[in-house]
Amino acid sequence: MSEPTITPDLMRISWGPQHPMSGQTRILLDVDGEKVHKIIADLGFTHRGIEKILENRSFLQGIVPIERMVMIDTANIGLGYVMAIEESLGIEVPERAHWIRSLVCELSRISSHLYAFGLQAESTGYFPAVFLWTTTDRTVLLDLMEELTGARFSYNFFLPGGVMKDLTEGFEDRVIEGVQYLRKRFEDYWTAMIENIVFEARCNDVAVLKPEDAIRLGATGPVLRGSGISIDVRKDEPYAAYGDLDFEVITESACDSMARTKVRYREIGQSLNMMEQVANEIPGGPIRTRFPLFTRSKPGEVYSRVETGRGEMGIHMFTAVGMNPYRVKINSPTLRNMYVFERLCELDEMLMADVPVVINSIDPWYLDSDR
Amino acid sequence: MNVNILASIWNYATEFLAVNAKPLLQIYVLPGLIFILGFAIIAVWFERKFLARAMLRVGPYYCGKRSGVLQVFADFLKLFMKEIIVPKDMNFLFFAAMPVLVSTVPALALILIPFDANWVLWDIGSLGLPMFFAIAGIAPLIPIFAGWASNNKYGFIGAFRVAYMYISAEIPLVICGAAVAIMAGSFDLVEIVQAQRNMWFAVPQFIGFVIFFLGVIIESERTPFDIPVAEVELVLGWRTEYSGILFGFTMMAEYVMFQAWTLLFITLYLGGFNGPVLGFLGVTGSHIFWMLAKFAFMVVLIVLIRTVYPRLRLDQMLDLGWKYLTPLALLNLALVLGMKMLGVY
Description:
The complex is a heterodimer of chains A (371) and B (345). By secondary structure, chain A is an alpha+beta fold. Chain A is built from 14 helices and 8 strands. Chain A has helices at residues 50-55, 63-67, 74-89, 95-123, 128-149, 171-194, 197-203, 211-217, 222-226, 233-236, 257-281, 333-347, 354-362, 366-370; strands at 11-15, 26-32, 35-42, 158-159, 162-163, 300-308, 311-319, 325-331. In chain A, the strands form 3 sheets. Chain A has a 3-stranded antiparallel sheet with strand order 1-2-3. In chain A, strand 2 (26-32) and strand 3 form a beta hairpin. The longest helix of chain A is centred in the first third of the chain and has 29 residues, at 95-123. The two termini of chain A are 18 Å apart. Chain B is mainly α. Chain B has one domain (82-342). Chain B is built from 13 helices and no strands. In chain B, helix 7 packs antiparallel against helix 9. Chain B is globular, with a radius of gyration of 22 Å. The chains are: A alpha+beta (371), B mainly alpha (345). The interface between A and B is medium-sized, with 36 and 30 residues.
């Protein structure tokens, strides 16, 4: 990509691969002293052609590469693809499998939000405790996942027609134990981070995204809900067991970076409630219907939506006669939110020190936007 | 013949040592070399271990029998061994001189600090406090030159952040210093300490005490105010281009600045070398022990602040400096003048 032109009295610097937690991206900033005038997100460094890879894999094989899109939140991503397959091939899923799917998705969402939460602490400066605390507490979730699925990351647990394995003996009790432990820890996070006077100073009234702008620019996930708009695929178009689970869609009216952080914090609370409910009320029955290894699809087109940790992900799958999808188009939440991020400096005054705070309040996962 | 020369050299050496034992000890041990280097090593080690505890980790573990003390030496050795990379088209001498100066100039201010009524390396009487501010006032210029010399955008922005920050912090500090001098009736640091024999100035000048405490953190670029080297947005600010031992010197500078300003803070507000008599330790009412004990307490306090608070933004720091610290410092000065007029002090 050629460098875009720059006005002569501005200085262009990169918020790029050299910085902590910038990941695999480069963001060009046009600054005048401290003030940011323009943000150019230079995405695409981690493009791996996942959409093309999916065309060359059978339906079942595709589950593995698509989970590489967001390593921190693999269950939600994988579920989107599996749901698209089920819809296009017309496969029924038993009730118990739906509940197990919801449980795994919520575990994955908490793990993703905890990571984002820790990075948000780190982005306000070398604020060491909270990031390491969240990383430590994620092991509780990862241990549960390992017991259930056999893997700590990239579970490949969902199959078209159900899930791979049933809950292990006494798994429900351990889920409740984990939930209780995490609830206790979350009180610490509130006092150490959200109520921290310096953290408040850094995040309050930074990068205000008004509701109308959020809709106009196509924000999604916690960014949209942080602007006070109650949109959540789990509520609007319930999939898995979300229709039966009690939860509310979290919104914050402040519209700033702190609001987006608080949305994540309170969503974790909702997820913990849901995990508890699943552990207490999960119905019995089979966990999957048979999915033949060699399946021939009919020509058609489906669109499945799931709410991942970063927002709504859509999978638009075209099928022809064959054993592979003909074309898969992934609508990823990070790309949509990065578009919002590029325009945030025009909507609200932003200083250079705000850039890491704002980008972590967006919670990007660059592999997700580059696919 | 030879024996005579050797004997005369020996005589001269013993005589020299006998006469100059105290200044030599001061230069090499207490405010001098060993104190500065030893403090840097112990502080780095303590900070690493303490932060690790707060983060639920162990910290340095393998070098030095689980305590990790030798890790600091290993890191210093590594910095010595590393190649020094100089940016293209750069005057090497100017580029390399800045890190050396930035860690030695604040060290000069240490020679003015009284560790005891008789333990001042450079006792210049009533010039002590103004001289400290003069030497410490030069120090911020050096990071500015270093940032400019780096020929790097991050370094450039970091250098200007240094300029903004120090100007807004040093004015309230000087006003507070003036208030202390007025209350003690002298600019002599030893007399300022002796004036606090009955009550530390932290009590009558509580506002000045708080301002100076924040000023110490700002001047030593410690965490709520480590804005010029903010790694999340500026890589390492004015230190970005420095590598190898030059980078080591810039790290060292942080601790030397911290040392100089903390010791001045103790001298001005926490009663310096005054303290209760501890008979069983052989510690009298005015003893070096009290200076070092208060210094250790301050180190723990400031590392604790680092574990708890993230970093402020530059504009917030400038707001703090100009809108709060400077007016409050003037208020403090007015209160001190009032107390002086009423004859309370």
